[in-house]
């Protein structure tokens, strides 16, 4: 194909123009005046004309009209020294092929425009757009943020002829505004001077507003004449923008912005170019979608990393081994340092010596770097020097280029793992529990119930509860009590435990123990136990208690009074009984007095059994013991009671019946002593936090075979083998006080009863 001939018409600069056309592969011709140009057109084969204005003998518009009269299809480009909107409109009206405003410095751009105007092959534009698409696609692959996409797309577009300017706008659906967020090319304050909307108003009728509405490419091929471009025409023509395209950047139903492209010539967007730009818009929209998903995943990953209940550290491989690059809150909190202190710290600083040796020997770390999913145990050191046993899971950590740079190290505190195992065991135990267990959501409906829950309420299975309200299980008065008293406590995050009356499937009621524990999501766990049998047992015990109280009154008052009367009359009879009957009378008096003492002991036993509380207080040991020694010595004048050493002035946990312990032991030592002289010795020692009282007698002693049963050990009944009510009462009271009592042999003969009690304070 022969070189294209271009005629440049203008005063001066012709040689420079010829050189530029020659460099572009065309032949340049020059004419200083319009008359000379017309002569050359009539005598030479010219493929295109470019004329400056004004000319020495006329202006460019007049020359254009004269050329059109004789050469209607010849490409003609007007290149005024100083352009204006009026001049551009007049040139377009006269049939100019292209209009390029500028000066001598714009002649490189002029050559390109002229060659475009005279190029007979229409695919030349399409080839440039295809190159643009390739360039943009390459840039999108490397883009990591939406800002990267904005900048690289705009920059690539303005590097492609004939595009002079590009910007990307953000559409706000709440007010219809389209706000610029990125741009490139010759702008000179254009974006600050215009207002673009997509709200149905006058400023929404341009290509940008239409593209927002249609989600399709919209163009204006001639800015100077298009009526819809009137709001922005003056500003656009001043900057030599001659045509415009708006390409929606969307993916599926999401609009990520509008790409606006400006060309410095009219008719720049033919159908093929529009189709390629529309495809490019979809490609860019998909890139935004990819980045948004990536940011979402990264945000979720970061949140998971930050809030993970396990310890996570990100390491970087260095010549000195793995270094902590970052860690989550749990890692820092468990080990006692701040995250800032950990950054740049060698991982071995938190490893024990043994764990460090395994690490440096390649046990796990090298395998993780090689791509293996490593699971092993590691012992870490806390800031306080404590050992923390963990389960380590490590995977390779890669950079954005896919190169391995370190590891993702996840440490599970084995204490937490054991706790998790316990939770699993508890969950399994829920199904096997004899208690009814249900989980109720914040609306008051069951989402779970175990088998026992159904059995307790008399339903066929747990499915009878799921989706139904807890109110089905209670009568109106109980529901009202729950609403007034229980639910406010649960909403405040407090547990509630108490008794209630439930309703079975058959309508019968039953007493229950109920435990309600609130959950973080507004629901709660309920645990129910049928206490029908317990209530029946409590009623039986209450009846037995009442009967025992009556018996106690009879023993304490009626029987004791009658026995005291018998002893009194028997004593009077001493004056009327002869020597032959006196022995029998004395035996009656002694037995009567023993019976009176038995009634007193029985009353004490009954009082202990009837006592509703087992609370103790600090009681002085010296007073309780010496007072009972004096009392027993006065009652049994034929016995010798002595103390060995001084009784310490200490306090022990007891109550008002502590004296009964010592009275019964002293009385037992005297009454069951058959020696010629009944001797009882009392001693007290205090060692550390314990006071030990020893009551020793010189009686016959207690056989080894009976020592284990003398306090009814293992039987606790009044009919068990033993020495009577007194020692039963002693063992019961000492056990209540948190002490111990036992019997030993005395030397050379007799028994020693030992009482051991804790000391208060």
UniProtKB/TrEMBL annotation:
GO terms for biological process: osmosensory signaling via phosphorelay pathway. It catalyses: ATP + protein L-histidine = ADP + protein N-phospho-L-histidine. It comes from Haloplanus rubicundus. This is histidine kinase. Keywords: ATP-binding, Kinase, Membrane, Nucleotide-binding, Transferase, Transmembrane, Transmembrane helix, Two-component regulatory system. SMART domains: GAF, HATPase_c, PAC, PAS. It is a multi-pass membrane protein. The keyword Transmembrane applies. Residues 554-761 form the Histidine kinase domain. InterPro entries: BphY/WalK/GraS-like, CheY-like_superfamily, GAF, GAF-like_dom_sf, HATPase_C_sf, HATPase_dom, His_kinase_dom, PAC. One of its GO terms (molecular function) is protein histidine kinase activity. NCBIfam families: sensory_box. The keyword Transmembrane applies. It comes from the Archaea. Residues 428-493 form the PAS domain. Its main location: membrane. It holds the Pfam family PAS_4. It is found in: Membrane.
